[in-house]
From TrEMBL:
Keywords: DNA damage, DNA repair, Magnesium, Metal-binding, Nucleotidyltransferase, Nucleus, Transferase. Its EC number is 2.7.7.7. One of its GO terms (molecular function) is DNA-directed DNA polymerase activity. It is an enzyme of class 2 (transferase). Residues 693-703 have a biased composition (Polar residues). The lineage of its organism: Eukaryota, Viridiplantae, Streptophyta, Embryophyta, Tracheophyta. Its cofactor is Mn(2+); Mg(2+). Residues 536-556 have a biased composition (Basic and acidic residues). This is DNA polymerase eta. Residues 526-569, 688-712 are annotated as: Disordered. Belongs to the DNA polymerase type-Y family. One of its GO terms (cellular component) is site of double-strand break. It catalyses: DNA(n) + a 2'-deoxyribonucleoside 5'-triphosphate = DNA(n+1) + diphosphate.
Length: 712
């Protein structure tokens, strides 16, 4: 419902810029030979030559209208040129028109706050620019006025028969008794005329504009004089404009509300609303809507121009009229896949170019039920959290449709007879992504908190979307696991054949002690398993791994005597291709700790016991390890003694492992973890509120959670 907002000031200068038959202009720029000829853009289908979506003014002079089909347009204007919209995935591809609209927006946004309302229309708040111009060069002081400004239409300006319209406009602009508001509008006329000329010069597109004190009046004025013209609405002419304006022509009154005003109150024009008091309108339509109706009858609209150059949502849809209606679930799924693929591409492009993510996926449809004429338009819309990725969006969209279909059939008092029934038909399908917001600052991949450093995009040579796979919203069911995310990220950065490179470079930072430790232990394990008898392999992997490994082992892998063992290692390496998981980080860490248990002075049980007396726990020390320098250094020495010389030579700096910054933690990632791990994360963030968890209970610690299950 419309929202009533008071005017913050009657001295605003708002412009609405509307492109002239924009789709036709885009096609004429591609094919200059079409300029000046009757042209129309069609969305082709087999039914009567397709639907017209844009008609040039030359074709309109012959009587061609947008409501016609292609064949009908040819009957009215045989010389008309019909240009088909590009097709992709079986539907119209509007990307070329969106890109052309972005060219226009980039020019218009230079002079004030800009709101992109659609592909071909923009709102501008020019108040600041007009006030500056009024101070520097008032309209009445201007001698030379551009031709385009003099061509402006000023509502309420009487032009006598035989007089020069441009001269009358000049007098209106330079009159000395003009109000402050009218002087601002005159300045706005100069600014908009210059912008329109700049758009024409840079893009070859013409546009029309309305200039008024609010968005509602500017929108009405922009369509009054087309093409390539502008209209100014002084405050004194508002009453005359609205008095004769049909109710259905007013924005937000073209639907049920406008029909109710016509049938219930007998209002044919907006001016007819003046006879009703605000209380009467509130009584009929509620407090908010009643006040809004009372305001628009007087030309009052306090809606602000939003500073938005990018769309608030992305959508993809297609209609299936008449016999083309979708009557099986398989056909619906096919088109949902096509629509979701397009939507996913646009979302990924928005993410890469504008660093924005969408949070909500919505499915809309129109359907009918045979034998029930009132079922049309009652197909419910469904929404869910949006998961990035074409396959995920397709799966969720199908789930939403199935839920809506069950509700639709139940609403129509009908039972479902399986998916392939002929009792229903879908005449329209669309999917949209909304709640699009910029990516929060400090958002990083989950790998940061386990690897210690976020890889830069330049080092991985991957698109922005991959770097933010973990920052976007996930499934509401939480079915996404960390191993899938990391394996995908690693697979994107290494060619398939480079298995050895993958195994050696999988760690995120060359100077990470844990990285070097896990790399060394992995290679030692493989060497040990190659040299052991066949029957001992099971014991190596199932019982206590690495317990019997030597502290230092400088034997190169190339010293393995058996060629068969080398071939076996190569096969094992190929089997590991692409199977990286977050669990590898924890397993390597735990395995390294098991080899140091007999040397550590304090074990996890002792630290947890100490924490019950108010001392910091082991988990708490991950964020404050610098405060206890001795144990940290001792632990580092123990690690170095086990891994030998596997670290980078001449490494001058070492990082503390498992450190993190609370401000950089993405809580949406934490919410996807199992409940017991979520509790421990929360304890890390709020140490003073950490509960006492029994040490003997498996799963009470994040490290215990990733330990191998000895019961199997």
């Amino acid at each position: 419902m419309p929202v009533a907002k008071r005017e913050t000031s009657d001295g605003r200068v708002i412009a609405h810029v509307d492109m002239d038959c924009f789709y036709v202009q885009v096609e004429q720029r591609k094919q200059p030979n079409l300029r000046g000829l009757p042209t129309a853009v069609i969305q082709y289908n087999s039914f009567k030559g397709g639907a017209l979506i844009a008609v040039s003014y030359e074709a309109r002079n012959f009587g061609v209208k947008r409501s016609m089909r292609g064949d009908e347009a040819k009957d009215v204007c045989p010389q008309i040129h019909l240009v088909q919209v590009p097709v992709a995935r079986g539907k119209a591809d509007l990307n070329s028109y969106r890109n052309a609209g972005s060219e226009v927006v980039s020019i218009l946004s230079k002079k004030g706050r800009c709101e992109r309302a659609s592909i071909d229309e923009v709102y501008l708040d020019l108040t600041d620019a007009a006030e500056t111009m009024l101070l520097e060069m008032p309209p009445e002081a201007r001698e030379d006025i551009e031709e385009e400004v003099l061509k402006s239409h000023v509502l309420g300006l009487e032009i006598k028969e035989g007089s020069d319209a441009k001269e009358e406009v000049r007098k209106w602009i330079r009159r000395g008794d003009a109000t402050y508001q009218d002087k601002l509008l005159a300045c706005g006329a100069f600014i908009v005329a210059n912008l329109r000329m700049q758009v024409l010069k840079d893009t070859e597109f013409t546009c029309s504009a309305g200039i008024a004190h609010n968005k509602m009046l500017a929108k009405l004025a922009s369509g009054m004089n087309k093409p390539a013209q502008q209209t100014v609405v002084p405050q004194s002419s508002v009453g005359g404009l609205l008095e004769s304006l049909p109710i259905k022509k007013m924005k937000q009154l073209g639907g049920k509300l406008g029909s109710s005003l016509q049938s219930d109150l007998g209002c044919k024009t907006v001016g007819d609303l003046l006879q009703f008091s605000e209380e009467k309108l509130q009584q009929c339509y509620g407090i908010n809507t009643g006040t809004w109706l009372w305001n628009i009858a007087r030309g009052i609209n306090g809606e602000e121009v939003e500073g938005r150059l990018l769309p608030k949502s992305h959508g993809s849809g297609k209609t299936f009229p008449g016999p083309q209606a979708l009557k099986t679930l398989a056909s619906v799924q096919h088109w949902l896949n096509e629509l979701c693929e397009e939507l996913s591409e646009r979302l990924q492009s928005d993410l890469n170019q504008n660093k924005r993510i969408a949070h909500t996926l919505t499915l809309h449809a129109r359907a009918y039920k045979k034998g029930e004429s009132d079922s049309l338009r009652k197909f419910p819309s469904k929404s869910c959290p949006l998961r990035y990725g074409t396959t995920k969006i397709q799966e969720d969209a199908l789930t939403l449709f199935q839920a809506a279909l069950r509700e639709f059939l139940g609403f129509c008092n009908s039972k479902t007879h399986g998916n392939e029934n002929n009792n229903w038909g879908v005449t329209s399908l669309s999917v949209s992504a909304s709640k699009i917001v910029p990516i929060p600052s400090g958002t990083h991949s989950i790998v940061k908190y386990f690897g210690g450093q976020v890889p830069s995009s330049s080092s991985f040579n991957q698109p922005l979307g991959n770097a933010f796979d973990e920052a976007v919203p996930s499934s509401p069911s939480g079915s996404e696991n960390c191993s899938g995310l990391i394996s995908y990220e690693l697979q994107q950065n290494y060619p398939e054949g480079d298995t050895e490179i993958k195994n050696s470079e999988a760690c995120l930072h060359e100077q990470d002690p844990l990285c070097n430790l896990s790399r060394k232990v992995d290679s030692s394990l493989k060497e040990s398993s190659l040299e052991s008898p066949a029957g001992s392999e099971h014991r190596t992997t199932k019982s206590e791994p690495y317990r019997d490994l030597p502290a230092k082992d400088h034997r190169p892998l190339s010293s393995t005597p058996s060629l068969k063992a080398v071939e076996k290692k190569k096969t094992a390496g190929n089997n590991l291709k692409g199977n990286y998981s977050i669990m590898d980080f924890f397993n390597n860490y735990q395995n390294s700790q098991s080899s140091l248990e007999h040397k550590n002075v304090t074990n996890a049980h002792d630290v947890k016991t100490a924490s019950s007396f108010g001392l910091p726990s082991t988990m708490d020390s991950y964020s404050t390890c610098n405060q206890i320098e001795q144990p940290a250094e001792r632990c580092r020495e123990e690690i170095d003694s086990n891994v030998g010389e596997c670290s980078v030579p001449n490494m001058s700096q070492r990082r503390q492992a498992w450190d993190y910054n609370i401000d950089e933690i993405d809580h949406s990632v934490i919410e996807e973890l199992p409940p017991e791990i979520q509790q421990e994360f929360q304890a890390w963030l709020r140490p003073h509120k950490r509960p006492n968890v029994p040490n003997s209970k498996r799963g009470s610690s994040i490290t215990h959670y990733f330990l191998p299950d000895k019961s199997r």
